[in-house]
Amino acid sequence: MSNNVPFLNLRAQHDPIKVDLLAAFAQVIDANAFAGGPFVARFEAEFAAFCQTRHAVGVGNGTDALWFALLALGVGPGDEVITVSATFMATAEAISFTGAKPVFVDIDEATYTMDPRLIVAAITPRTKAIIPVHLYGQMADMDPIMDIARRHKLYVVEDACQAHGAEYKGRKAGAIGDAGCFSMYPGKNLGALGEAGAITTNDAALAEKMKVLRDHGQKVKYHHASIGWNGRMDGIQGAALSIKLKALAAGNAARRQHAEHYTRLLAGIEGITTPVVAAHGIPVFHLYVIRLQDRDRVLAALGERGVACGIHYPIPVHLQPAYASLGLGKGALPVTERCAQEILSLPMFPELTAGQVEVVVRELQGVLGSPAATLARAS
Ligand SMILES: *Cc1c(COP(=O)(O)O)cnc(C)c1O
Asked: Rounded to two decimals, what is the model's pTM?
């Protein structure tokens, strides 16, 4: 019996567009447009339109995107940036690499995103910016965050690396803060065929600054007005992303459908908390994350039954050895720490089938020892 359900299936995503991708690569090769260039510029225009922003700046990866956004906003040594610890390491790394210090606030237990009620207490005279993270594809509660930022004159950089196309009260991820940062790492909702990232903004001057930053501080070749970096997007990636962007909305819709299916089936199983979709938006389910006790045993047992799951993320950033110098021990962020113990990411990708969702739930029930009748009742 072949029950195997992969966590992610990029092959299934690329097979139907392989001919188009190869044709696009031939164009890039013929045009010698490898580092930045016209294929990146075209993708930037398309991605800005998709995000409903005036500008998009293509960069090397999502970590670059966060770093350049902060640098362009003037964040540097001595500054503090408020963010969450329940995120991928890169959010904090980008802050640290400007010379600023990450200041973590806890998350809302229902949505796993920044708890806006905790921000004001974390603000000091050194605070320069806030980075909410749209974790798992659901946007943070942006209205109160923007309101606090305006009152305290702070910048807001959205970490939208998991939220391409997500919405908050009708507005797209990346279109609300001063800048929005996206990763096009292959497994993200919009994935390149390698590394890529992008920054969105409605501020023309900021977009220009970020374009200069990603290209060694030069506007005119070999004339370096400032100290920049090499953070350009590859032409090959720009060309691939133009093709893959066409499938993003449908892919996000498929993810939402799988999520609804999971949630319907899992509703019958005791001890499992399914994702809460906040009334303020439309998530894009980069990940479908449940909570349960005895998570590590369940993860291992599911693996043995051929169902590949993951944990995003097992160790909060503030408890990583890399951030030991912040002096935040266990107990500093109780909600974040509790969630890290209990979260489990089930297989989620657009090409997943309804049958595979049912297999995952059946195997999960088997592991938990729930009666099989629950599945029949729930469906
Ligand atoms: C993937 C990711 C990043 C980093 O993106 P890369 O392209 O891998 O550099 C940053 N933040 C979050 C929340 C992510 O998921």
From this structure: 0.96
